[in-house]
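About this split. The held-out portion is used to measure sequence recovery: a designer receives only the structure tokens and must propose an amino acid at every position. Recovery is the fraction of positions where the proposal matches the reference. Here is one held-out target exactly as it appears in the evaluation file.
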């Protein structure tokens, strides 16, 4: 069996962030990037630098923070995009520019309004320009799954000759079936004369639920890089899930002639970090990282596992990090132990003031619940405002009255642009009353699209984590809040979402389409 390495290219920070409401701050991106680095992900696609000043700064910050993984920036096949990516990646110890242009007939005709010859010329020019910034250049023919094979071969041959070291074949709209996509990959590698000069990659979307299947089929037919995301996060139905790709290749070494270098024990912690930051909860029966992934309720299954784990488990829960999520910290834990554990989780404090603020919140939480988990700490840091910058709104006080047979009412006090304001309202429930009281003070004119509650850990003293999704003039944001009191968590989440929608600039991704 060959020991070829399968390169894991994570695009959670770029494609994953394009999920409506999954926008991340610069510091949140750095936290996730550090977690990916601990997992030993080979390439981290940090963002799309031309998209906005915020995206540029985030890619630059990740480039500074990460030293053991290659940091990648996306760029259309345009000089301004490539130059912006090159500038953002300048601090990186290892940098890659990923440039793309559409190659399917419908995209070339309807979107680009370019002839096939013009597309080849532009692709070659883009790769050559990217090479002036780094020797590590990736090229993607967007919508390759619907492109004509002869033209696709011509484009790929040309960009490899121009200096592309990785050629990525995307199934941009999730249209392909595994046997078709595997055959496409095999055909391209066989027909492109200089295919041995580049690594062939795959990027699959999950519109038909086939992203992982298509990606693995491509690997079996010669692809040696897979582009994927934590929890399968991504536009529309998402991308191929990193955890499923990695654990399939690891578990079925009898089938796959390749391996990855990932530290798989970091999968679950990273999954929970991404879920906490984005507010996108992981479904309980999600493969690998769902809370029920290694649970057995059937008596037959339980009996078999007790006698021999291998009867119903094809991998160990510990191998993906399920045994490493509890910490022994409580009300008597000191500041140094607290700081050390957070450093292990990828959180560094920029000042003693930030540490003191987070530590004070930790002590408050420790008074409310006996056991403190890593997930509690991650939620605490996100909520503590270390990364939020100046808040336009801040929740100061909330009192709710709810009893059988009476209309719930809420009184809320907010810090609004430096001034303390208070309002009361009634509602169909305590959460509804709280939101209406907040709106009396803010009058945001936003539309509530999602209200979701999840427990961060187990037990009746668990913190509840609330996600609120708001829309205003087509812009969508998620807000998160956590507390042992669900109503308070809900108010925190609503205020968090309002801060995002008020403060952050409109993120208008100018890309022609998605890779």
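Reference sequence for scoring:
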């Amino acid at each position: 069996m060959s020991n070829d390495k399968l390169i894991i290219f994570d695009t959670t920070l770029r494609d994953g962030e394009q999920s409506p409401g999954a926008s991340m701050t610069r510091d949140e991106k750095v936290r996730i990037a550090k977690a990916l680095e601990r997992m030993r992900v080979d390439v981290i696609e940090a963002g799309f630098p031309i998209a906005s000043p915020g995206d540029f700064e985030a890619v630059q910050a990740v480039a500074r923070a990460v030293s053991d993984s290659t940091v990648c920036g996306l760029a259309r096949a345009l000089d301004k995009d490539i130059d912006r990516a090159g500038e953002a990646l300048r601090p990186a110890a290892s940098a890659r520019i990923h440039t793309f242009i559409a190659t399917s007939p419908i995209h070339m005709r309807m979107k680009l309004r370019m002839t096939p010859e013009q597309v080849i010329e532009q692709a070659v020019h883009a790769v050559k320009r990217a090479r002036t910034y780094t020797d590590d250049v990736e090229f993607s023919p967007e919508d390759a799954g619907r492109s004509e094979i002869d033209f696709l071969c011509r484009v790929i041959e040309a960009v490899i000759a121009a200096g592309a070291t990785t050629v990525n074949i995307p199934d941009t709209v999730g249209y392909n079936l595994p046997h078709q996509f595997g055959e496409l990959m095999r055909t391209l590698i066989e027909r492109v004369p200089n295919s041995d000069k580049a690594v062939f990659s795959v990027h699959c979307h999950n519109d038909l639920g086939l992203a992982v299947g298509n990606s693995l089929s491509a690997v079996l037919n010669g692809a040696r890089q897979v582009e994927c995301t934590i929890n399968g996060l991504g536009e529309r139905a998402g991308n191929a899930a990193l955890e499923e790709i990695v654990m399939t290749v690891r578990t079925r070494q009898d089938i796959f002639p390749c391996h990855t270098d990932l530290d798989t024990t970091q999968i679950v912690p990273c999954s929970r970090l991404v879920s906490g930051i984005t507010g996108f909860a992981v479904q309980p029966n999600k493969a690998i990282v769902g809370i029920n992934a290694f649970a057995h309720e059937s008596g037959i299954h339980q009996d078999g596992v007790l006698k021999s784990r291998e009867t119903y488990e094809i991998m160990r829960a510990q191998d993906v990090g399920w045994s490493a999520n509890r910490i022994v910290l409580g009300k008597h834990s000191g500041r140094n132990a607290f700081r050390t554990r957070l450093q292990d989780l990828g959180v560094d404090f920029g000042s003693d003031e930030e540490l003191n603020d987070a530590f004070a919140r930790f002590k408050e939480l420790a008074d409310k619940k006996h056991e403190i988990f890593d997930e509690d700490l991650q939620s605490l840091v996100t909520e503590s405002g270390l990364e939020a910058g100046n808040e336009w709104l801040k929740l100061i006080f909330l009192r709710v009255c709810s009893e059988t047979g009476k209309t719930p009412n809420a009184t809320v006090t907010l810090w609004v642009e430096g001034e303390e304001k208070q309002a009361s309202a009634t509602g169909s429930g305590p959460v509804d009353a709280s939101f209406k009281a907040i709106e009396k003070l803010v009058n945001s004119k936003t539309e509530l699209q999602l209200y979701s509650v999840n427990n961060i850990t187990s037990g009746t003293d668990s913190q509840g984590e609330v996600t609120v999704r708001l829309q205003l003039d087509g812009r969508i944001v998620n807000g998160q809040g956590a507390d042992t009191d669900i109503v308070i968590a809900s108010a925190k989440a609503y205020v968090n979402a309002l801060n995002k929608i008020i403060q952050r600039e409109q993120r208008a991704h100018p890309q022609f389409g998605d890779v």
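Annotator remark: Residues 9 and 43 are 5 Å apart (CA to CA).
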